[in-house]
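On clarity, I found the account of how folds are encoded harder to follow than it need be. Since the whole study asks how a given chain folds, the encoding of that fold should be made plain. For illustration, here is how one protein appears when written out as sequence plus structure tokens:

:::
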Amino acid sequence: MKPIKIGVLGLGTVGGGTVNVLTRNAMEITRRAGREIIITRASARSVDKQRICATHAIELTTNSLEIINDPEIDIIVELIGGAGVVKELVLAAIDNGKHVVTANKLLIAQHGNEIFARASEKGVIVAFEAAVAGGIPIIKALREGLSGNQIEWLAGIINGTSNFILTEMRDKGRDFADVLTEAQALGYAEADPTFDIQGIDAAHKLTILAAIAFGIPLQFDKVYTEGIANITRLDIQYAEELGYRIKHLGIARKSAQGIELRVHPTLIPQHRLIANVNGVMNAVVVKGDAVGPTLYYGAGAGAEPTASAVVADIIDVVRALTSDPDNRVPHLGFQANALADIPVLSCQHFSTAYYLRLTAEDKPGVLADVTGILADHNISIEAIIQKEPLQGETSIPIIMLTQITFEQEMTAAIAKIEALLTVTGKINHIRMETLG
């Protein structure tokens, strides 16, 4: 049987890692796929740049369309990233009848509905395991391994940069800005870290996971997104004292009212396994009605961890080349004509517990005023800690944990508490999840 020929678009970190893995494990991959898989062509911004992979056996070009239009190429591996022209390249590859493997979460989250529809028309596969959580096979687990379950919820640390920052702040008592600078120096964060620290990268990934978990269209624009820039050393310290850790989570939950899609800092109990996922590592917890909670952990980025997922997708595509397109695993795990029109809830309809930190004057009756406002909004208090005044200050920090309430009630209560003359500054509030 003749070899399968691959064309790679983009020879950066992941592209170079993919070449290395395919080359190093060529014999094992052939045994698994049933056919030899070789990279014959690749595109890059520069053909002369020194790379992490050997390219002497690969024809290089700066024009990706040359590869897409090459009739000898069977599979296009898109590792450029971003959208815009990349979307057009992927659609052109599909129109040329080529299967596509991509690690591009932005492309799938924002344009996946259109791309998958076009691929179905042309009878080709678009595989995207590497788009979420690097080398962790979470998409395959959701789409295939857990396909007998109704997924109730999932929660994940799906951005390594944010997890690194929060871990350093907790372990070493450092400030956010200081750790961010180090993350940039180490290459964990980009020069412009907006996508990571504001939660946009995690929102792209959560969009994909939720679509596969619940059988809904991709809806990135409906994900509530909140970053970590407002998390302080004090919040992390107080959370630890109360038996919690702060993690930046992507959470998708299905209820009778609809689906919650949210990315935000979250207090979770210290004894949960996911609370102990540190540094740049990723982890996702999925709760199915039959299997219960399951945890998937591993490297969320890096040349070869991500290449591991890319190569696995290539093998899956090769295995499916001779199958009837109607009998392949659907892109989002559910048949395209069976995707559900379940509403995605606005943030005011979220239901969760809260950590509140406020600063108030040390006077009688202040705490009663605060708890009275919470009671007026049907918010029950789980725990209260009143701390000593910080050095040089007369006001005292008060930390509260609430029971589960609706976001709209908490938003209204916080506004009234902040309006009290005895309360100074803004209330720092962080959502809490037990993940039980």
